[in-house]
Amino acid sequence: MQKKKKEKQNSKGVHVFSRTVSPGLLLVFSLILVAGGIVLYRTGRPETEPGSYNPADSTTGINTGPSMQKTEPNNSGNNLVLLTLDTTRADFLGCYGRKSVKTPNLDRLAEQGVLFEHCTSASPFTLPSHSSILTSQYPYRHGVRMNNIFKLEEDNLTLAEHLKKYGYTTYAIVAAIVLNRTFGTDQGFDFYDDMSDKNSGIRKANEIIDEVINMLHQFSSDRFFIWAHFYDPHFPYESSHGFANDSIEAYEEEISFMDEQIGRMLKELDSLDLSRRTLIAVTADHGEDFGDHELRHGFFVYENTVHVPLIFWHPELIPRKTRILSQARTIDIVPTMLDILSVPPMENIQGHSLVPLIRNDGNTEGFPSYSETVAWKQQLDLSRLRSISDGKWKYILAPEPELYNLMEDPDETTNLALKHPDVSDAMKAKMYTLIKSTQLSESQNSSESTLSSSEIEKLTALGYVGEAPVETNTHKLETDIFEPEGENPGDYEKISFLLETARGAMFENDLELAENLYRQADQLLPDRWLILSKLTMVTLQRKKTSEALSVSKKAVEANPDNYYVLRARGQVLYEAGRLYEAEAVLRRVLEIRKSDIKTLYYLGLIYASRNQLDEAEAFFRVIIEKEPYNIHILHAMGVLYAQRNNLIKAADYFQKALDVDPTYEKARHDLFLVNRALAGSN
């Protein structure tokens, strides 16, 4: 990765501690440990660069400076507000032509500013996409390829870090746990308001704007950069009119609510007299498919999921009523904002300023856009998917390549790869050149995130894969894995529908339907760790222990070195009372993933069940050192001390669990029993 200054600015995070709050299978207090623990579920074609840029190759070049802005230096006193709208398709905003959605505030920004008709996201996943926005790098450079299991390493330079060098106070507020500081997006922020100490994994737009308004009052005399992330249009959608949580109507309602809240912020900027010196940029991380190619997003790189809105607004520094057809990319947002603000550019970035397009400085063409998804490879052992578009042609690199003429076929329904092999070959070559000329020369093994039990629970409750093994690449260059590997994802489109529908069933607590859908997926694509792990957990939740044992055994046979699969097997064996087998499997997990919290927890339960209390406590204390606010471990320690007949110590741990989560009824009940026993002994 590119090297950063030696002394890295630390984030003065607002939220410090991670707390476990979601109940799992709870320990039963009877002075004996029984089955319990944490069960996790849930357009122009670009040929040349603008003349003022002195770039490398127009298809591939990396911006290394010097400064490219033409704006006057006195613009540097302006503030910056970046709004990122999760899961928001461009064509679902009023300013992009949607009639059934009310977005008057975003429409006003577009009407009074600059709107790019064609902006492409680097990834259909939240974390990789935001990492690309904040670093102006594609995922193969910054290293974050999927949600939750990767993190943005400190080697990457972020916009917040860059702006701090020029006197900006930096503040971020994010609406979902998928952007928690754990994943590295907090780099450079003085204040990073995430979901670390929240009971839920998400929050609504009104809560985000409440905090943004507080920050505007606090920072009104400073030069500030505020990044606000909104999660409302992400599935499951909420509706006050009774629409289903997966309906387009509910999705539109969420977008309108988000817009309404953004309007509150705009009003506050006016009232504080900050609007006249604040640049506002609006974009999205990705869109939503609604069944054209997949049910939601992440599996493919079609336009429904990578075409995102892009709006810039400032009362003086950019023109009004400007709509630009040239292609833009989310990696261009950072250099564009810096250019408008007359802040020196970041070095070694892949994006370019869009200011020449905004000013129409002799160039009306955009830049080739790249997108990728590794979901099929990471989770189902099929091929990665990559795409590149020049505004007219879009090429998808897959075992069966796809080519679309976006001007004639914007819905990507007719694959022209066989009809125009020359175009396909040229687009593939352009993609290879892009990657080859911008890949890093050092090893690009992606960094795995380390999640707390609380974060895993919240992520799985939202339907994410809370954790998973990271694909380890022994390659040194991205071009070493450029060609497709594995079967063609397009042949398994039904799998994406089955998995997303099963996710929806889990939200509705329809475990029978979820199990049926996972079984169908296993029949279509056998022996995949993700499918078998999901099937293992849903059968365990349904108390079908014998079936969970059968499925988990099959999963281990197919994936003998996958710690996620092994740990699920160990958990099932524990629940089945086969403690010695469970211990052997779980110790194998620790060989692969040292200090794995959930594994240590179950090993502690196993030893406590055998009345080997000192050994159990040793496992629990390792977890407490890492997660002092883990209510399950605090409760387990209370039960352990009750087994030792040390009721005062037991009561202390039960109370600690309640201090973290006053709604934790198991701890409350057991504290009552202990206090009653103590009162009776007096």
Characterize the structure shown:
The chain is α/β, with parallel strands linked by helices. It has a domain at 72-438: 3-Layer(aba) Sandwich (Alkaline Phosphatase, subunit A). The protein contains 23 helices and 13 strands. The strands form two sheets. Strands 1, 2, 3, 4, 5, 6, 7, 8 and 9 form a nine-stranded mixed beta sheet that branches. It has a four-stranded antiparallel beta sheet with strand order 10-11-12-13, with helices on one face. A hairpin with a 3-residue loop joins strand 11 (385-389) and strand 12. Helix 5 (205-219) packs parallel to helix 6 (248-271), helix 15 packs antiparallel against helix 16 (545-558) and helix 21 runs antiparallel to helix 22. The longest helix has 24 residues, at 248-271. The protein is globular and about 85 Å long. The N and C termini lie far apart (65 Å). The model is unreliable at 1-61 and 64-74 (pLDDT under 50).
Query: Major beta sheet, specifics?
Result: 9 strands, mixed
Termini Cα gap: 65 Å
**What is the architecture of the domain at 72-438 at the second tier of CATH?**
3-Layer(aba) Sandwich
Radius of gyration: 26 Å
For the structure shown, list the relevant keywords:
alpha/beta, Alkaline Phosphatase, subunit A, nine-stranded mixed β-sheet
Secondary-structure topology with pairs:
Blueprint: E1 79-85, H1 104-111, E2 114-120, H2 126-135, H3 139-142, H4 159-164, E3 169-173, E4 191-193, H5 205-219, E5 224-230, H6 248-271, E6 278-284, H7 303-306, E7 307-308, E8 310-313, E9 322-329, H8 333-341, H9 355-359, E10 369-373, H10 375-380, E11 385-389, E12 393-397, E13 402-405, H11 421-438, H12 453-461, H13 493-507, H14 511-524, H15 529-541, H16 545-558, H17 563-575, H18 579-592, H19 597-609, H20 613-626, H21 631-643, H22 647-660, H23 665-681
